[in-house]
Every structure is written in structure tokens, then in C-alpha cells.
Amino acid sequence: MNTTTYGLDIAKTVFQLYWVEPSGKCFNRRFSRAKLLEFLANRESGRIALEACGSAHWWARQLQALGHEPVLLHARYVRPFVQTNKTDAADAKAIWTAAQQPGMPIVAPKTESQQCVLGLHAMRQLRVKMRTMLVNQLRGTLFEFGIRIRPGLRAGLQEIVQRMDELEQNVPPMLFEFVREQLQSIERLDQEIARLDQRIDAWGRQNRACKTILAIPGIGMLTATAMIATIGDAHTFKSGRQLAAYLGLVPKQTGTGGKVWLRQS
């Protein structure tokens, strides 16, 4: 018995599903979120292909719970199969068509734990960026009043704190108040980053694969947890080169007429 393949175009509130019945009849239907889950719960197990976008990994877990096999495809591989103007119906059919191609690369669904760790990393990265921006903005503002602060985030912050009495004498009162408040904002970001580090560190110490990677010289907890959360099951990849390509560590390859060039990613 052949397994039915579906092409699912997901959005926030509207979902388009394309499939072909064994009789050869084609369907391209629109669903709400609740109606889609209800419909798929009453269907026999099948392959459901969807683009690997923001919520695709959550949907993959929902489909697995309903007994279906999720197939995540890179959007770049789906786009060539859109035959008409880009619509939800056309996208769903293109996803279905792409899923039928032999050797089509697929993306392994992430677990809830992987997504949580990647979310913590994203939150940490944003706070680190905000902290750097606040420190640089503070250094530039003080320089406009003839006050030079030595480079480096920690060194600069330490010097600013040590010279607060001097700054109060040389910076206009209407500005100095906000210099003090900006320092407090930076301190709060430091505390938030520290709490995120603790949560990431706790997860890494409980993860067997993460412990293995930590044994490699030069790899710390942040790199190890980010790598494991991004890769997931290493057995998904056929070779180390395929893994490197997935992480973007190898250059692009283009060729024509028997000549091949390696280019930057």
C-alpha cells in the first residue's frame, strides 16, 4: 500500500494542504489551525512535507504525535517547483512536488529541548549585542566632552565607574544623570547574561553529546551547547563534509563545462 504524501504550506492562521488520492484525484484545501489538526488526526499515516521555516519544527512534532512522518525541506529547494504566481495553493503543490524528487535533501526536525537551547542562545546574543552598543555609545558620548575611555568592554566600564566623581564635574548635569542610568542598564544586562549562561551550562552538563564535545581542546560550553542544539542527532548526516556544509563551514561549489569552482558561502 502506497503512503500518501502531502504538501503543507504553513502560516500563522491559514494553512494550505495539497495531496493526491490513490485514485488520482488532486486536492488543494485551506484549513484553520484547529481544523487542520482535526483533519490530519483522522487520516491514515502519511508523509507530510513542509518548508523548514520558523514554526516548522513545532509542527513536525505535532505531526509525529498524530502518527505522520514530517519531511522538512529547505525553501530554496521548493521555490523552483512553483509553476505559477506565488500563492498558498501554488506553494503547497510545489512543496508536494519537491518532496517527490529522488535524493531531495531534508532537514531533521529539532526536539523541544534543542529549540529551547537555541532560544536561550538567541536571547543571550541579543543582550550581548545590546551591552556592547550601550558601552560604545557611552564611550562616544563622553569623548565628545573631552573624556577618553580606554578600549575594551570590561576595561572601559571599570574606568568609567572609577572616574564617576570626575565625570560628574565635567559632564553637564542633564547628561550625567542618564550616564548613571545607562551604567545601571548595562549592569542589568550583565545579570541577565549571567542567568542565561547558568541555564545553558546546566543543560550542557546533563547532555551526553555535549560532554563529549567539551573534551575537545578549545571548545567551551557555549560552543558545545550551540553545536549540539543545532545539529541534533549526528547520525542524520552521511559524512563530516555534509555536516560541515549544513553548518556553513565549507564554500559553495559551482561548475560548468567540466570545470568546478569553490566559492565563499
Automatic annotation (TrEMBL):
Give the highest taxon in the source lineage: Bacteria
| Record GO biological process | DNA transposition
Q: Signal peptide location in the record?
A: none
User: Which InterPro entries does the UniProt record give?
Assistant: Transp_IS110-like_N (IPR002525), Transpos_IS110 (IPR047650), Transposase_20 (IPR003346)
Transmembrane spans = none
One Pfam family, please name it: DEDD_Tnp_IS110
Which ranges form a coiled coil? 179-206
Keyword tags:
Coiled coil
Q: Give every Transposase IS110-like N-terminal domain span.
A: 7-143
What GO molecular function annotations does the UniProt record carry, in alphabetical order? DNA binding; transposase activity
Domain spans labelled Transposase IS116/IS110/IS902 C-terminal: 211-261
Q: What is this protein called?
A: IS110 family transposase
Question: What is the scientific name of the source organism?
Answer: Cupriavidus necator
